[in-house]
Amino acid sequence: MPADNLEINETTAAQFAQLVLDCIEREYPHSNICWADSDEDIKPPRQLTPVFYGCLDWHSAVHGHWLLVRLMRHFPEASFSAAAKQALEQSLTPEKIQGEIAHFQRLPFFECPYGIAWLLQLAAELHEWNHPQAKVWRVVLEPLEKLIASNLHHWIDRLQLPNRTGTHNQTAFALGLILDWARITENADFTRLVENKARQFYLSDRNYSLQFEPLGYDFSSPGLAQADLMRRVLSTTAFTDWLTNFLPQIPTENTVNWLEPVKVDNPQDYMQSHFHGLNLSRAWMLEGIISKLPNDDQRIETLRFAAIHHRRNGLADVVSQHYAASHWLGTFAVYLITNRGLQKQYVS
């Protein structure tokens, strides 16, 4: 994708959709980090999780399905919509969903929290989409959604400490996705749970240094994800004060090198490819932070420059020839450029 093409159109949407269509049924190579209690837990991916087995791993397959639904909502008449519809019809069947349910009955916290947060995002996307086919898929997915939500509620309720790393186990990133799902589906109990847990974990945090990031091969900034979550939870006044205490180093005058995108030296390296996603997620988290600040806040110009800089760098390398990035990165690009995390931007 050209670096200066920062918005979504049918051409770029088709490129992103094709990334998923190329691997949604590609079983191998496969990465499955899963606790095995018996032979039932050691099977080919298509048998363990018959809906979400492609795209290298379960969570990438889940958010690949989300990507197809999201783009079909935006471009219902696009050339890729027929292929996307066919792929979703093959995946989202009652029989295959029962296979997923059986897997989660054996392993209730499989892919917790990252993967199941994306499963709830898929459910939220279908919930909002006022289309006959979306309603059919929503009904098919609902039993799995309910089981996963029940397991997740138990997990969050018992969680004592947040994970502050920058990959799949990070708590703040997942809670942001989960909170959006809870609000979209009008699940008041889950909304209260996540809001209360966010306050418990992060409200008193002070003096975080973004200069220590990335902490490793991050695809999500621990610090910005935390701020992006808290802007969902706090009022404008409360969030403005909280951000001042949490990230006091944000310049009030625009500084070009305040927060630089992370470069990828070896695009074939699966771990280094995370940095493409880090640039994209930083961009949408910065935009989320801006959305909750008052218009006269002196930090907005600096934050907006950093968001655009990260957006441009991240989008430049989305359509990659290397499976290390191509199996998942389109999701982060679509989440960013369709403004999924900004509720006022949700499409009907």
TrEMBL record:
Entry-linked InterPro entries: DUF2891
Biological source species: Komarekiella delphini-convector SJRDD-AB1
Protein name as catalogued: DUF2891 domain-containing protein
